[in-house]
Amino acid sequence: MYYPFSWLKSLLRLGGYLLVFAAVGWYLDDMLLAITLGALVLLTINYWQLLKLNRWLWHSRKMSPPTVKGVWEHIYEGIYYLQRRNRNKRKELGELVKRFREGSEALPDAAVVVDAKANIIWCNRLARLDLGLKWPADAGRRLDNLIRHPDFIAYFHAGDFDHPIEVPAPTNPGKTFEYRIMPYGEAHLLLIARDITRVSQLEEMRKDFVANVSHELRTPLTVLHGYLELLPADDQVDPFQAKAISEMSAQTQRMQNLVEDLLVLSRIEASSERIYENIVDMPAMFRQLEAEAQALNKDKHHTITFHINGELKVFGVETELRSACSNLVFNAVHYTPAGGQIDVYWDTVSDGARFTVVDNGDGIEQNHLARLTERFYRVDKARSRKTGGSGLGLSIVKHVLTHHNSRLEIASTVGQGSEFSFLLSQELIAGT
User: How far apart are CA 298 and CA 321, in angstroms?
Assistant: First the structure.
């Protein structure tokens, strides 16, 4: 405990001590001898107290200080107070570390903490089970020396942790792990490894199912459509039969279009083609696309204008980019009321190359915009059926743009029109 006037008491004691020895010197008529004796006694007492303090700090098992008087009493109490406070802080810190470890052990994912030099600082129980780490034997070892998959090592050293990576588990190649790395603190990294084997298997099953079913449907649909074209459809002979044949032909064609879109979507999802390996001549592609759009526009009589930068080529997959651009242009032709205005833009901007389709159609309500790229989602089901839409066009666009590290941007105002656009990064522009 701190005493506010303890220093005054210590000074008074020291003064009294000096007065005693001054009196002895006066009595013996040798003041120098008396002061020397007094100083020696004072030094001896303080040195003895220092020895006691050293023994208490380093050798005694007792937390409470020895009983002393004077200024040394306050020194002992100050040290004792600091020890108690530090002990309480260590206890609180220990409880905090204990709760953190208990919480981390309860995580459903493997967690590993590494320092700036990629040395392992700590890992939880699942990291030891799923990643094959040994604790504490692997403490201080480099993480990239223990997880040796080439894709993980490349991802780890690249330093771009915005997106996770999926690689086989180090202890079981039959499992697939999603690795996510998050920087924190002073150049520390937290690695989270999640078992996504089941999710990956279900996704592969879905892709295979869609691709196989779509492929198997093509042949019977082609046969049906061929025989329907051979059947007579004369309104004068049998109006009901003619209407039935016409409706069946239209629905068969619509089914064929749906199957073709499903196959395109499956090919894009399964594509492993690298976007940096080929240069796409976008101006040439847009010239062909303009001709197709004008042919599709015969009944609608839109004013379609292409504003194309004739020198702008990009790296990418030509079939995929053509599919994305044509879907956006053809959608504008299909869903803009007759006599509308459609403008198509392809040019450089400050941060890359932008493709934009602008129409002055009916527009789309804001609550629909976030879901437009979902498979089979339709704003107006009746109008989609009338135009023969499959509900997969914008989903195809989304997957193409994801493959090209881009995304679809949609802006629309009801009664004024819509704008669909995407941006390809500066790195994808050929010749930069």
Answer: 25
Q: Look at residues 432, 421, 409 and name the one whose alpha carbon lies nearest to residue 312.
A: 432
Please state at what angle helix 318-335 crosses helix 393-403, rounded to 10 degrees. 150
CA 183 from chain centre, in angstroms, equals 12
**CB neighbour list of residue 156: distance below 8 Å, 6 or more residues apart:** 118, 143, 144, 181
What is the C-alpha separation between 379 and 393, in angstroms, rounded? 13
What does 310-353 look like in DSSP terms, one character per residue?
TT--EES-HHHHHHHHHHHHHHHHHHSPTT-EEEEEEEEETTEE
Give me the amino acid identity at 86. N
Give 341's strand partners: 303
Nearest to 354 by CA among 404, 320, 399: 404
Alpha-helical (H) ranges within 106-196 are 125-130, 150-158
DSSP per-residue string spanning 201-219: HHHHHHHHHHHHHHHHHHH
How far is Cα 193 from Cα 161, in angstroms, rounded to an integer? 13
DSSP 8-state assignment for residue 364: -
Backbone angles phi, psi at 92, to 5 degrees: -65, -40
Residues whose CB falls within 8 Å of the CB of residue 127, separated by 6 or more in sequence, listed in order: 110, 111, 112, 133, 193
Per-state percent for the chain, helix, strand, coil, to nearest 5 = 55, 15, 30
Tell me the DSSP string of 222-258.
Answer: HHHHHHHHHS---TTT-HHHHHHHHHHHHHHHHHHHH
Tens place of pLDDT for every residue, the chain, 432 residues?
445 555 566 667 767 777 777 777 777 777 777 777 777 887 888 888 888 888 878 877 777 777 777 677 778 788 888 888 888 888 888 887 777 777 777 778 888 989 888 899 888 888 888 888 888 888 889 988 888 889 888 888 888 888 888 888 888 888 888 999 988 877 889 898 988 888 777 777 777 777 777 777 777 888 887 878 877 766 666 777 788 888 888 888 778 777 777 777 777 766 667 788 889 999 999 999 999 999 988 888 899 999 999 899 999 989 889 989 999 999 999 889 988 999 999 999 988 999 999 999 888 888 888 888 877 777 765 555 555 556 778 888 898 898 888 999 999 988 889 999 999 999 898 875
Q: Give the closest residue to 428 by CA, choosing from 396, 398, 406, 409.
A: 406
